[in-house]
Specification:
The complex is a heterodimer.
Chain A: H1 2-21, E1 23-26, E2 35-40, E3 47-51, E4 54-61, E5 64-75, E6 79-80, H2 84-91, E7 103-117, E8 120-131, E9 134-147, E10 160-172, E11 190-202
Antiparallel strand pairs in A: 1-4, 2-3, 2-11, 3-6, 4-5, 5-7, 7-8, 8-9, 9-10, 10-11
Chain B: H1 2-28, E1 37-45, E2 52-61, H2 64-80
Antiparallel strand pairs in B: 1-2
Classes of the chains: A mainly beta, B alpha+beta.
């Protein structure tokens, strides 16, 4: 009986410890620093835009970078290009159709090729990318930086940790039904995406 | 007849003035060879995370279509003076 109780206690303690290692990082950044840059080649000048309406959570165990789960969401209306006519077209029905598809999401599913160097590391993250309602599994290279105890240094009054994710990858607009096969003489088929986001995990 | 000549001169002067103004505005506001912008971004770096992020400011930067429309209007205005309603210049 005593052995059973001890075993149960040990399992419960280990379970609690193991659970405590996993941290949830909130990527809705009140400082408005999180951003995604997208670039498409075009004849006169490349179309350079940004997206700032980023939210979502990622659960990660800093000790085990391969164990990452979560979803990053981008509000489609937050996509911005400097030319107002171009922006209207981009958000309109023919291109991104923001009314029908208000978000772009990336749901993290698995992590591979994890390389770690102190509090930074790289990995190939596979997940489901949803754009204009079309889901596609893609693998993207991600650079991860874990900043323990740095949350308060950003101006808040709460202690906690930060997780910075950076990634550069390409998607094809035809894969997501964005004017597939059309206007390729005006706008390139491939879109270069560059993501730089920081998530906060406040200490409880 | 004299009034016709005066109007012709006035329209041609206006078209030249429009052309100069459009080119001058385009040049002074950045001589941008791309499309017109209504916002301009500057890059900043978050000290803690090292993330580079854009900060936007509302600013009008005329592009090539501004230049094209302006030059087109100036030429259209000048071409009006070649219509037969205006008297021909005396040799």
């Amino acid at each position: 009986m005593k052995t059973t109780l001890l075993t149960l206690t040990a399992v419960a303690t280990l379970s609690t410890l193991s659970h405590a290692e996993v941290q949830t990082f909130d990527f809705k950044d009140p400082k408005g620093v999180n951003n995604i840059v997208f670039k498409l080649d075009a004849p006169l000048e490349s179309i350079n835009g940004t997206a700032s309406g980023i939210s979502g959570t990622v659960s990660a165990d800093p000790a085990n970078p391969g164990d990452v789960k979560g979803t990053i969401t981008v509000d489609t209306v937050s996509l911005h290009v400097p030319n107002p006519v171009m922006k209207e077209h981009m958000l309109g029905e023919k291109w991104l159709n923001t009314t029908a598809h208000p978000t772009i999401t990336f749901e993290l599913k698995s992590v591979a090729n994890v390389k770690r160097d102190g509090n930074t590391g790289t990995a190939d993250v596979t997940g489901t990318f949803t754009l204009k309602g079309i889901k596609k599994d893609i693998t993207v290279p991600v650079q991860v930086t874990y900043l323990p105890g740095k949350l308060k240094a950003r101006g808040g009054d709460v202690d906690g940790d930060l997780l910075v994710l950076r990634s550069n990858f390409q998607i094809n607009r035809s894969d997501f039904g964005i004017q597939a096969g059309q206007s390729t003489d005006k706008v390139a088929e491939s879109i270069d995406v560059s993501l730089s986001i920081a998530g906060a995990s406040p200490k409880k | 007849m004299q009034a016709g000549h005066t109007l012709k001169k006035l329209i041609r002067s206006a078209s030249v003035l429009l052309l100069i103004t459009v080119v001058a505005v385009w040049f002074v506001l950045g001589a941008h060879l791309g499309w017109t912008k209504t916002s301009v971004s500057t890059q900043k770096i978050d000290e803690i995370t090292g993330i580079e992020y854009p900060v936007f400011e509302d600013r009008f930067v005329p592009g090539v279509e501004f230049l094209a429309v302006g030059i087109g209007l100036a030429l259209a205005l000048a071409s009006v003076t070649f219509l037969p309603i205006f008297p021909k210049n005396q040799p």
